[in-house]
Specification:
Length: 354
């Protein structure tokens, strides 16, 4: 049972939240707000509870995950929480030898570049991530009417980490495999789509009200390559969770040229980075989908007046949309002043109150 269903004709606690209404393109009392990376290094309370604990270990402690996920909801009064985890958690859970190194990111000990390497990517079972089920159970009890967003990394972005062995600026090994052995590439992404789908199902069945698929690196591709070599796997993920009835959000960075295709892949909501105004993004995505975004995260380092001016520009561009969720165009930067985020939430809520 998902938090978006209506059992016996009665709405669940989160069904009529501003966030889920916006996802469904229904009228809202105010534009809902949440931030990618709202739980994390910008918060002193996060740094305190994470002290001396590695990132991956933090993701596997239900009590810690619950506390970290709740921190920005308490502080900023955002309209949705996002489950605290990392996109490589399901890969770690199935036995991939990787670690998240401070200042670097995910690093894979043995990159996957041959057909034999595919055998190392087994299916993900709920038992592999029992700590996720436990944490979401704790969170939904604490959050009440505030929706919880589950998330996963999209097949392309996961593949890029696995093939490169870590973060990459040019994705040369990834593209070499995609162009040089298209069948192996397709099989790799299909395997990752199965793993990603299983990970999202665990979160939805535990109580997540919506899910977001992060394709952080897919902006490195041309539209033709995305349609041919990536879109089928992303579409498979969205289709796998369609029957649950929860909103599905799709987000990537530098994806202005891909927005229409990302919507076609099956998302109910398309996330937009700060490079494309929301009214233009709506034209590219087409009707029938809500949009999420898209204030430049760096704006928060400017004056209060500048933040409000740029926020009004985003809201004005979103004025004619069927559904809009206010967010940043990427994640909260680590040195962002938390008070700037709190003021931003209040400003959006006040300015858009209906």
């Amino acid at each position: 049972m998902s938090a978006n269903d209506r059992p016996s004709g009665q709405p669940t606690k989160t069904y009529d939240s501003a966030f889920l209404k916006a996802c469904r393109r229904e009228p809202v009392p105010h534009t809902p707000v949440w931030f990618m990376r709202q739980a994390g290094r910008s918060l002193p309370e996060y740094l305190k509870v994470r002290e001396g604990i590695g990132m991956l270990e933090s993701c596997m402690r239900p009590e810690l995950v619950t506390e970290i996920t709740l921190q920005p909801v308490r502080r900023h009064k955002v309209d949705a929480a996002i489950y605290f985890s990392d996109i490589v958690v399901p890969l770690k859970a199935i036995g991939v030898d990787l670690d998240i190194k401070p200042g670097v990111g995910p690093v894979v000990a043995e990159p996957i570049r041959t057909r034999a390497d595919l055998d190392r990517l087994r299916d993900l079972t709920p038992e592999d991530v029992s700590y996720v089920t436990e944490a979401i159970g704790m969170l939904t009890g604490e959050l009440g009417s505030t929706p919880l967003i589950g998330f996963a990394g999209a097949p392309f972005t996961l593949a890029s980490y696995l093939v490169e062995g870590g973060p990459s600026r040019n994705h040369e090994h990834t593209k070499a495999l995609m162009y040089g052995d298209p069948q192996l590439w397709a099989d790799l992404l299909d395997r990752l789509a199965e793993i990603t789908s299983a990970f999202l199902k665990v979160q939805i069945e535990a109580g997540a009200s919506a899910v977001q698929l992060f394709d952080s690196w897919v902006g490195a591709l041309a539209p033709a390559d995305y349609r041919r070599s990536v879109m089928p796997a992303s579409a498979k993920v969205f289709e796998a969770v369609a029957s649950y009835g929860v909103p599905r959000i799709h987000f990537g960075v530098g994806t202005g040229e891909l927005l229409g295709l990302m919507g076609e892949a099956g998302a109910d909501v398309v996330g937009v980075d700060w490079r494309v105004p929301l009214d233009e993004a709506a034209r590219r995505v087409g009707p029938g989908r809500a949009l999420q975004g898209n204030l430049d995260p760096a704006v928060l380092f400017s004056t209060r007046e500048a933040v409000e001016t740029k926020t009004r520009e985003v809201l004005d561009a979103a004025a004619g949309l069927e559904g809009h969720i206010f967010n940043l165009g990427h994640g909260v930067l680590p040195t962002t002043d938390p008070d700037a985020l709190t003021r931003l939430v209040e400003y959006v809520h006040t300015r858009t109150a209906r």
